[in-house]
Amino acid sequence: MSDTLKAALWMSGAIFSFTSMAIAGRAVSLELDTFEIMMYRSFIGIIIVVSVATIAGTMQEITSRNLGLHFIRNASHFAGQNLWFYAITAIPLAQVFALEFTSPIWAILLSPLILGERLRPIGLLAALIGFVGILIVARPSPETADIGQLAAATAAIGFALSALFTRKLTRSETITCILFYLTIMQAALGLLFAGFDGDIALPSLTSLPWVILISCAGLVAHYCLTTALRLAPAAVVMPIDFIRLPLIAVVGMTLYSEKLDIWVMLGALLIFAGNYLNILIEVRRKSATG
User: Fold this and answer.
1) How far apart are the first and last CA of the chain?
2) Residue 142: pLDDT over 90
3) Which of 106, 135, 246, 286 is 20 to 30 A distant from 270 in Cα terms?
4) Among the residues of 57-174, which ranges form H helices?
5) What percent of the chain has pLDDT over 90?
6) Cβ(7)–Cβ(211) below 8 Å
7) pLDDT band for position 46 (cuts 50, 70, 90)
């Protein structure tokens, strides 16, 4: 079996996991707020990460040398994930996923500040194309302003910051160390914000399986995505990931009677085009210099 086919199979796992997490998030939203969802998800994540690391013998890889960087990375992800969980209850799922795809564009714009990487003209063009896509998806106006759209768009910024700080951490830390602090710190943040009003709801027996699914799906999705990127270039993997959008649109129509908005699909295609253009140019540049 070729590496490309293996990458496609791993990406199908990521797509299924991201989709199931959105369904599970909506299912528990009537009982738990976003902070409670993140808290329980992180507690379950701690058990999973520590168990796997113990079995794999990688617990000794956990260090305390970059706690500040870990905190910034996890605070960014915590904010983005909370906004994402809110958005999936407030607007159609296809809109949420379309706006989420702007995360790589934000990463392009923010990488010079965080990683010291040079912003190339093609990166600016990709960002501009993506921004036009955002306008088509959201079609903002004083009459149609939607807090759900704003939450989804802002979540993408949180995910971009998380990705950039993760990349910075990978220069010195292993995946076990990164995932350990991800679950520990986000559990603490979830507990702090969920308990701010003095009332933390317990998941019912009906909601508990959904909460477990959210935790497992999040870890599995990112593991599948990382494995796929190790097997094949981003230029191959990214178009597969884009299948998430029409899939979630079908899920929205089937389960929640959401209408298929052609403008959301058109805007998402532009967002994808901006991302893909940047990847293709980067691959060709590396090939020419390598």
Assistant:
1) 27
2) no
3) 286
4) 67-90, 93-100, 103-114, 121-138, 147-169
5) 48
6) no
7) very high
Which whole-number Å values give the CA distances from 127 to 12, 69, 110, 215, 258, in the listed order? 27, 26, 11, 32, 29
Of 256, 206, 208, 209, which is closest to residue 88 (Cα–Cα)?
256
Query: CA-CA distance, 95 to 202, in Å (whole number)?
Result: 30
Q: Is the pLDDT of residue 8 over 90?
A: no
Question: Tell me, what amino acid is at 174?
Answer: T
pLDDT of the residue at 130:
85
Cα–Cα distances in angstroms (integers) from residue 37 to residues 156, 171, 173, 251, in the given order: 19, 31, 27, 22
Mean pLDDT of 160-187: 90
Among candidates 162, 182, 173, 178, which has minimal Cα distance to 46? Answer: 182
Are 100 and 185 in contact by the 8 Å Cβ rule? The answer is no
Instruction: Output the pTM of the full model.
Output: 0.87
CA distances from 25 to 84, 86, 131, 188, 288 (A): 10, 9, 27, 20, 44
- The angle, 0 to 180 degrees and rounded to 10, between the axes of the packed helices 121-138 and 262-289 is 170
HSE on the CB side for 234, CA within 13 Å? 13
**Cα separation of 155 and 163, whole Å?**
12
Query: Under a CB-based contact definition with an 8 Å cutoff, are residues 127 and 274 in contact?
Result: yes
Backbone φ/ψ region at 139: left (φ over 0), alpha (ψ -120 to 50), beta:
left
Tokens of 110: 């923010």
Residue 253, burial from CB neighbour count under 10 angstroms (0-12, 13-18, 19+) = middle
Q: Place 159 in a pLDDT band, splitting at 50, 70 and 90.
A: very high
CA atoms within 13 Å, Cβ hemisphere of 239: 10
